[in-house]
Amino acid sequence: GDALDVGERLLWGTGLSNAAELAAYESGILVLDSVADRALYYEDLNLDGDALDVGESVPWTDGFTNPFGIDVGPDGSAFLSDFATHQVFRARDFNADGDALDTGERLLYAENILGAVSVLASGNEQYVVAFTTGQVHKLRDINGDGDALDTGENLPHTPNSIPSIEGLAPRSGGGYFTGSWFNDTIYRVLDKN
């Protein structure tokens, strides 16, 4: 019932300046490096129990100022929040070359989310925590143009009353959980009407 025994916590990957959030992606994980301003992809290609070998960690996308949150949606798109620029980016490996570094694979998805930290990608909607205002924004590409930059596509989903809000987790049956490290509380959010 725990992972406290010898051999139950193993070094799996290295090469990060400052590991931030991570998300499951394909057969591995995407990990944000908030100092190097990029995301790396880790996969245990030789099935030896780690991603420490040559070629098992590769740059996946870059060009951020202070990436903080990441989640992967059902279509394989990664949504990455940038704390410093108050933006959310959408990245996807469209040409199947193993990264989202090519032109057109990393696009601005939403902006004006003050202190964008955690991201939750759920179906055709995304939720982003705005740390500075203490609220969650709901993002939705209503007109199908690939972003949530148009009127009505980036809306507050909670009041701005949760101090030091951070983190999002899906809730079975709909909605999500979020928490505040300032007042040590967890909130369950569900749109009942």
* Straight-line N-to-C gap: 39 Å
The succession of helices and strands, N to C, reads EEEEEEEEEEEEEEE
Tell me the radius of gyration: 17 Å
Runs in which pLDDT lies below 50 for 5 or more consecutive residues are none
Helix content: under 10%
| Biggest β-sheet description | 4 strands, antiparallel
Give a quick summary of the entry.
By secondary structure, the protein is mainly beta.
Describe the structure.
With 193 residues, the protein is mainly β. The chain has strands at residues 19-25, 28-33, 38-42, 57-62, 67-72, 78-82, 87-91, 106-110, 116-122, 125-130, 135-140, 154-156, 165-170, 176-180, 185-189. Strands 1-2-3-4 form a 4-stranded antiparallel sheet, with no helix packed on it. A 4-stranded antiparallel sheet has the order 5-6-7-8, with no helix packed on it. Strands 9-10-11-12 form a 4-stranded antiparallel sheet, with no helix packed on it.
Features:
single chain, about 190 residues, mainly beta, four-stranded antiparallel sheet, 15 strands, about 45% strand
